[in-house]
């Protein structure tokens, strides 16, 4: 039995053990996947101890994604760009390889729901670590333009600059918003506090989608706001399942079917 785990703090509510148990059952892989809660600042020691006990790979979640980035011997291109790692892989040589699957997870979830990105105008709200992590895969889908807006305008402007070589992207404050968008993605943590970013009422183009990277039993405040303004709605549950599927693929070289896991996870929220 190969061992895997999710490292987070707190980690008690993580859905990853359930998701990976489903993937393993589905693909007939003999793996054990647990949840581990290292003290803040002690991810590297916890990962080393885990490897010494037969650990082969891990997911890393809040607040350890930057620590995971630091501890890796080798990084994928997209992890380097993201400045964060959510997937650790122990190589045969004892070296640790780091990747990030969050952005691919988002793009796959959008594809699953047949949300087109190519040629579309995309707005991203927020400019923190979560948003930095999705920009490379998103720009790879060749939207006509990506606009990033953030409460702290400078952070959005910086992201626009950092990713300008990958496509048409610009960043600024909420006051710089103009025109309508085909896809609007909320990547802020504002919904955690029940806050709504200050967005104009006429934001959505015909047939537009509103996507919140967060999810919960109840729709987030952002989705609750977007529905009556004409957008079709998606929350981040599918992204969670798809990023897990990509991690599973990196470890086991098998692609699980995400559909039954989506359904089971949605049910388990209630
Ligand atoms: P994460 O890893 O979730 O991205 P983060 O790096 O702390 O966490 O980023 C949080 C994001 O949510 C930021 O874009 C933040 O805006 P600021 O950069 O201005 O802080 C945004 N955010 C958090 N609470 C918010 C609120 N109440 N209203 C608007 N934006 C908020």
TrEMBL record:
SUPFAM superfamilies linked to this entry: Aminoacid dehydrogenase-like, N-terminal domain, NAD(P)-binding Rossmann-fold domains
E.C. designation(s): 1.1.1.25
GO molecular function, a single term: shikimate 3-dehydrogenase (NADP+) activity
Matches recorded under NCBIfam families: aroE, PRK00258.1-2
Catalytic residues identified in the record: 65 (proton acceptor)
Function: Involved in the biosynthesis of the chorismate, which leads to the biosynthesis of aromatic amino acids. Catalyzes the reversible NADPH linked reduction of 3-dehydroshikimate (DHSA) to yield shikimate (SA).
Protein's GO biological process: amino acid biosynthetic process; aromatic amino acid family biosynthetic process; chorismate biosynthetic process; shikimate metabolic process
Pathways per UniProt: Metabolic intermediate biosynthesis; chorismate biosynthesis; chorismate from D-erythrose 4-phosphate and phosphoenolpyruvate: step 4/7
Any single Gene Ontology cellular-component annotation: cytosol
Residues that hold shikimate according to the record: 14-16, 61, 86, 102, 215, 243
Enzyme class name: oxidoreductase
HAMAP family tied to this protein: Shikimate_DH_AroE
Membrane-spanning residues: none
Domain SDH C-terminal: 236-266
Record-annotated Shikimate dehydrogenase substrate binding N-terminal domain positions: 6-88
Gene for this chain: aroE
Organism, as annotated: Vreelandella subterranea
Reaction catalysed by this enzyme: shikimate + NADP(+) = 3-dehydroshikimate + NADPH + H(+)
Name of the protein in its database record: Shikimate dehydrogenase (NADP(+))
Binding site for NADP(+): 126-130, 150-155, 213, 236
Family classification: Belongs to the shikimate dehydrogenase family.
All residue ranges annotated as the Quinate/shikimate 5-dehydrogenase/glutamyl-tRNA reductase domain in the record: 111-191
Subunit structure: Homodimer.
Keywords: Amino-acid biosynthesis, Aromatic amino acid biosynthesis, NADP, Oxidoreductase
InterPro entries, sorted: Aminoacid_DH-like_N_sf, NAD(P)-bd_dom_sf, SDH_C, Shikimate_DH, Shikimate_DH-bd_N, Shikimate_DH_fam, Shikm_DH/Glu-tRNA_Rdtase
């Amino acid at each position: 039995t190969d061992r895997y785990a999710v490292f987070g703090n707190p980690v008690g509510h993580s859905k990853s053990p359930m998701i990976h148990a489903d993937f393993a059952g589905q693909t007939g892989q003999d793996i054990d996947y647990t949840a581990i809660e290292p003290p803040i600042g002690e991810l590297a020691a916890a990962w080393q101890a885990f490897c010494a006990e037969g650990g082969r790979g891990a997911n890393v979640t809040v607040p350890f994604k930057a620590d995971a980035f630091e501890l890796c011997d080798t990084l994928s291109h997209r992890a380097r760009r993201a400045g964060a790692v959510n997937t650790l892989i122990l190589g045969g040589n004892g070296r640790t390889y780091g990747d990030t699957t969050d952005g691919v997870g988002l793009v796959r979830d959008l594809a699953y729901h047949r949300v087109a990105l190519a040629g579309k105008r995309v707005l991203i709200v927020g400019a923190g670590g979560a948003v930095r992590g999705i920009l490379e895969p998103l720009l790879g889908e060749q939207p006509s333009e990506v606009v990033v807006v953030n409460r702290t305008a400078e952070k959005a402007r910086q992201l626009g600059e950092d990713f300008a070589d990958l496509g048409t992207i610009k960043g600024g404050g909420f006051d710089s918003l103009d025109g309508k968008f085909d896809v609007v993605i909320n990547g802020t943590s504002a919904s955690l506090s029940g806050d709504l970013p200050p967005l104009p009422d006429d934001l959505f183009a015909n047939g537009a989608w509103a996507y919140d990277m967060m999810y919960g039993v109840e729709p987030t405040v952002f989705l609750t706001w977007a529905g009556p303004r004409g957008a079709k709605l998606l929350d981040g549950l599918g992204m969670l399942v798809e990023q897990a599927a990509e991690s599973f693929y990196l470890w086991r070289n098998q692609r699980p079917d995400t559909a039954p896991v989506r359904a089971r996870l949605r049910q388990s929220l209630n």
